[in-house]
């Protein structure tokens, strides 16, 4: 009898190890039925979303980021503020601080790996601001503001990313991802490269992602409907190629939005708003080049943001205009997606595991 009990307990532990409900936060625009940031759970074995509940009522929390220890959460607001929250045990959020993003239309927030700095990207104001983070996770006023606006043109800062002592910012209006490096013995970043890769025309870089070793970068271009791949060199980065996210026969209006690498870095995913698809690419790990292998309908309208779940077996899409989250199964051998189901959600624009 004791042996059977031990076997049962062992079996239950194995099930819990491989089948767990993980938290998922949903950022929204609150100009319709949404009231703020929502919270749910996602089962990484079955692919099922739990009940979606309001985590905190707040205005237009359009992009979300965790602290490294996941005890705090941060959100960007298009009215020019950045908020920080404590994550409660029940999934609710309690407001810690709310500071100016130092520009209109805050659309992105990123936190460095040590959790003591955040960077806001302000699409409307065209600026980015470095925000110190206190030990309790609360935000302090900006310590540095990057302003690449010219007299006649906004820089349209759209996203940013910390990598070791480097900081990268995508300026859609300047058609560049710029690189900044931390000055010696200082908390100040200095411009190192105005544009890490040279791109022609007016592609409008929006979001970007690096491989884990930092040697390859992939930039999704909102206006050019393409992805530019770059390889790190001793002098910066070299452009490998720029590949369309669309089939040749697609002639309607489209703008790209989000981009993510699979955990094994064999596949790359980008969202098309207009064609309303996720473009799937096979990645060559030796050369960094990519080849489009699928355009999967998002079963919704305007996929502003999407994410891969922690297991890598599922991909979830936030469809802003159709008010739904679509869930896809990922074939981890081929990278291709198959649609499972969708759930109604008010104006979802960011998904954070």
Automatic annotation (TrEMBL):
GO BP term, example: glucose metabolic process
Keyword vocabulary terms for this entry: Carbohydrate metabolism, Glucose metabolism
GO MF terms, alphabetically ordered: 6-phosphogluconolactonase activity
Matches recorded under SUPFAM superfamilies: C-terminal (heme d1) domain of cytochrome cd1-nitrite reductase (SSF51004)
Recorded family membership: Belongs to the cycloisomerase 2 family.
Full protein name: Lactonase family protein
